[in-house]
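RECORD TYPE: inverse folding
INPUT: structure tokens
STRUCTURE:
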């Protein structure tokens, strides 16, 4: 059932049965929806889990290269690529 269909059916819940009864019916529906959300286990999305694993793989005991070292590496790469 699509969200739109569910919304349409919610609007079709009885209203003329009596004001208190109609409110109780709709509140019962809201409670059921909330309960269904509470039953869902909270786990990080697959993508987030994978990113955390990848960050762990990138950890090293070495210091990050300095700007000069990075520039030197880039220059070496350019020389290899174009000469």
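DESIGNED SEQUENCE:
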């Amino acid at each position: 059932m699509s969200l739109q269909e569910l919304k349409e059916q919610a609007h079709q819940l009885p209203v003329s049965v009596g004001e208190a009864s109609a409110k109780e019916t709709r509140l019962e529906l809201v409670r059921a929806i909330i309960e269904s959300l509470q039953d869902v286990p909270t786990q990080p999305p697959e993508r987030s889990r994978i990113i955390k694993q990848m960050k762990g793989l990138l950890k090293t005991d070495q210091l990050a290269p300095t700007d000069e070292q990075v520039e030197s590496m880039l220059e070496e790469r350019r020389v290899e690529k174009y000469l």
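NOTES: The two ends are 62 Å apart (CA to CA).
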